[in-house]
């Protein structure tokens, strides 16, 4: 029996509610992260401007190969779309930019070029921002789990999201949560592997957090991987990192639907893994429903991502399952 329970950090529905101060802090964190992610685009724009200023007239830009991709961006061609264009298509797009927008701008054609470059890059940034809150939430929970393991003196291995390689714990683990797809540790001598954003066959949907009773080498990219055996699952959870109160109820409804789908799929198969929820924006009506689910056993644990005591408690719970 896990000594850690939801009652360690929740004594009623009100203890789940996100405070105004936490909401404000969350919006500030999002703004700072948006600025951090925008920095490469700003630097590209500076480089583009300095290089483009060497051109005497807009048509000269066609001969500057070092900014060819930037010209395509300014023409409204995304990186993804550019992969489907041949050289003739690319030149035609750039000529369209020059004829329709840069030539009419006269001596200000370089500024016009930079503005249009940033406009397209802004769309790219906007697309990545839709998942930003979720990424920040995932990072915060990951750092909490890493801290809990470190404080208990437990070793771990983590899965790099891009290289798909498991990496052993090192003395300097700063920022590893930025690229972490999974985590492995031992609980009472038994392997525990936590994986993020995993397609679960029995559920037929992606699940945000999956904890397995397996060594990390049981997770691979074939049909023999651990997620294909329902008995391997110890816990499954949904994570909603959005901080905006206006969208909180909708996020919760989506999470409830996903959690019910998870529980029903496993129950039909005769399995009963732990089911939990972690969210950043929790309003009163949601909190009351969550607390009822906890008391009735529909949910095994819930935590508010903006409350440090909640993160400590649920992370201790997770690493001791």
From TrEMBL:
Principal EC category: hydrolase
Keywords, sorted A to Z: Hydrolase
SUPFAM superfamilies: Restriction endonuclease-like
Pfam families reported for this sequence: Endonuc-BsobI
Molecular function, one GO term: type II site-specific deoxyribonuclease activity
GO annotation (BP), single: DNA restriction-modification system
Database matches in InterPro entries: Restr_endonucII_AvaI/BsoBI_hel, Restrct_endonuc-II-like, Restrct_endonuc_II_AvaI/BsoBI
Gene3D superfamilies hit by this protein: 3.40.91.10, Restriction endonuclease BsobI, helical domain
EC annotation from Swiss-Prot or TrEMBL: 3.1.21.4
Protein name (Swiss-Prot/TrEMBL): Type II restriction enzyme
Species: Bartonella choladocola
């Amino acid at each position: 029996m896990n000594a850690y329970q939801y009652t360690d950090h929740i004594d009623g529905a009100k203890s789940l509610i996100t405070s105004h101060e936490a909401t404000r802090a969350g919006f500030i964190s999002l703004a700072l992260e948006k600025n951090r992610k925008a920095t490469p685009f700003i630097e590209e724009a500076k480089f583009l401007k300095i290089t483009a200023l060497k051109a005497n007239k807009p048509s000269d830009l066609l001969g500057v190969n070092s900014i060819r991709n930037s010209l395509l961006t300014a023409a409204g061609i995304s990186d993804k779309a550019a992969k489907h264009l041949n050289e003739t298509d690319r030149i035609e797009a750039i000529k369209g930019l020059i004829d329709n927008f840069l030539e009419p701008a006269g001596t200000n054609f370089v500024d016009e070029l930079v503005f249009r470059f940033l406009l397209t890059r802004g769309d790219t940034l906007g697309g990545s921002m839709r998942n930003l809150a979720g990424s920040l939430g995932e990072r915060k929970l990951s750092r909490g789990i890493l801290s809990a393991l470190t404080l208990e003196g437990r070793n771990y291995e983590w899965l790099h999201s891009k290289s798909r390689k498991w990496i052993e714990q090192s003395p300097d683990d700063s920022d590893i949560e930025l690229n972490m797809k999974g985590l492995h540790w031992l609980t009472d001598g038994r392997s525990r592997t936590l994986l993020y954003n995993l397609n679960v066959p029995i559920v037929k949907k992606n699940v945000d957090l999956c904890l397995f009773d397996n060594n990390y080498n049981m997770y691979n990219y074939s049909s023999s991987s651990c997620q294909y055996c329902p008995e391997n699952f110890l816990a499954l959870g949904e994570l909603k990192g959005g901080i905006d109160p206006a969208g909180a109820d909708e996020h919760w409804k989506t999470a409830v639907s996903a959690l019910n789908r998870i529980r029903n799929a496993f129950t039909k198969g005769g399995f009963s893994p732990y089911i939990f929820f972690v969210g950043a924006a929790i309003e009163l009506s949601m909190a009351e429903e969550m607390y009822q689910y906890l008391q009735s056993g529909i949910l095994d644990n819930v935590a508010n991502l903006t409350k440090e005591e909640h993160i400590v408690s649920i992370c201790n719970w997770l690493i001791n399952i």
